[in-house]
Amino acid sequence: QKEVEQDPGPLSVPEGAIVSLNCTYSNSAFQYFMWYRQYSRKGPELLMYTYSSGNKEDGRFTAQVDKSSKYISLFIRDSQPSDSATYLCAMRVVGNTPLVFGKGTRLSVIA
Amino acid sequence: GAGVSQSPSNKVTEKGKDVELRCDPISGHTALYWYRQSLGQGLEFLIYFQGNSAPDKSGLPSDRFSAERTGGSVSTLTIQRTQQEDSAVYLCASSLPQGRGNQPQHFGDGTRLSIL
Prior knowledge:
B: mainly beta; 47% strand; globular
């Protein structure tokens, strides 16, 4: 079992839909949880970051962490064609450690 | 620009050749990471530098891979005797020291390496 599992999709939704992206993980020591967005032929860019359990909202984006279930989610409201990209979850333990990534979910928002 | 810069953006080489990939981190970022992104595999950690500490090499897949960071800034990832399975996008990221909080890692656009 990989440390972080993420459905690769692809996921196709109409413009304006609510999108739900999810990851599960096995390492209970993970404390920092991040979502990156990656456009084609570009590097990942940080969208959201959450420490431990809870919710965080930023505009149309909401990140949720449920440590008891080892499950994290990213919700995108009022999705736009410009949201079409690959979304990567990432997480790490406390301290100077690298990120552990999911495989990424490819999202297409159709106008 | 002020972002992480990687060069070359694309590299095509023959199997068995050595390649060098360069990363220029954001000024003032003492932490530098190399990741590899293969088709369908997500990002895989390779090596991590933090200031003057010994690098964390735990992610390097074989002894054909090595990296150095000169003067605490620019880093070079070297792959010797390349194999076809080395074909991937090699991404570099930098951040401020992690310390007690979470410092976000900023990524370059990567080097797309193709081994013929």
